[in-house]
Write a structure and sequence with these properties.
Mean pLDDT: 93
Order of helices and strands: HEHEHEHEHEHEHEHEEHHEH
Strand content: 15-25%
Helix content: 40-55%
Number of strands: 10
Structural class: alpha/beta
Bound molecules: D-malate
Oligomer: single chain
Low-confidence stretches: 5-17
Amino acid sequence: MKMRIVVLALASLLAGATSGVAEDYPARPITMVVPFSAGGPTDVVARILAEGMRASLGQTVIIENVTGAAGSIGVGRVARAAPDGYTVSIGHWSTHVINGAIYNLSYDLLTDLAPVSLLVANPQLIVANNKVPATDLKSLVEWIKANPDKVSAGTAGPGSASHIGGIYFQNFSHTNFLFVPYRGTGPAMQDLIAGQIQIMLDQSSNSLPQVRNKQIKAFAVTSKARLAVAPDIPTVDEVGMPGFYISVWHGLWVPKDTPKPIVEKLAAAARAALADPATRKRLTDLGQEILPLDQQNPAALGAFQKAEIEKWWPLIKAAHIKLD
Ligand code: MLT
C-alpha cells in the first residue's frame, strides 16, 4: 500500500513537472533547422511558417540553415539536440523518408525524432534555362536525347527531392544527363538562370517566381491538375508523360522524448499559422497546398511518414542510387 502511494505521488510529481515545463514553454527563441540552403523551397516554407508561429508562441522562431548530404546533416543535428522544444526540424519527403534508404544515417528517422505536424505539399515543375531551345516537353525530351553530354540538371544533393525527380524523369523519358549537386535548390536556381545548368526537376515554390519573371521556362507540372496559381503550365498528363506525379510534402519534427505538451504547443502554433489567411496566401501563391486540418498534428504525420517509408524504401533501395 505504502509503495503504491509513493508511486502515485511520484507520478503526479512528474506530471506536474512536465506540465510546468509546458506552461513556461517557450521562454526563449526556438531554432528551426532548415537542412538546405537559404532561399530554396524548404527555407521559404520555414520562414513563412516561423513568422506565423511567432504570434501564438510569443517567441521568435529563428531559422538556421544546416546544409549538406541532401539534408541529412541538418536533420541529424536536431535528432541529437536536447528534447526541450527549442530545436525543431523542418524537412520533407526526401529528408525524412528517402534519405533513410540511401544514406547510412547516424539516427533513426522514426525513433530518434518525434513528429509534430504535416504542413504543405507542392508538385515539381520541369524547368529549363531560357537558352534551351525546346518549346514544349516533347521537344525538351528530344533535345536531351540529342545532347546527352551537354545537359546537366541541378539537384539539392544525392537523394534529394530534385535528384529523385530527375532520376524518375530519366527513367520515364529514356534520357540521360548529368546531375550537379548543390546544398539546396536555391543556389541551383541561380545557376539555372545563369545558364550553368540546363534543367531542373524543382519544387513549384522555388521555380514559380522565376517562371513568372520569365527568367526560366516551365514545361509541365508533376500533378494531376494544373496549379490554380499557374494555370498556363500544363500537367504531365497533358504533354506526354502520363502519371509522372511527384508531390513534395513538408513536416515538422522535434527530438524524441520531447515532452508531449510541448509537442502539442508546437503543433497548435503550426496550425494557427496555417489557418492565418495572410500566411495561407503566401504559401498558396507559390503553388503550395496547405494540407487538411486533420493532418496538421503529430499522429497524422507519424502515420504518414511510416507509410511513406514502407512505400518508398523498397523502390529506392532497388534503384541503387549512387552517393557520388
Ligand atoms: C531545398 O530546399 O533546397 C529543397 O527542398 C531541396 C530538394 O529538392 O530536395
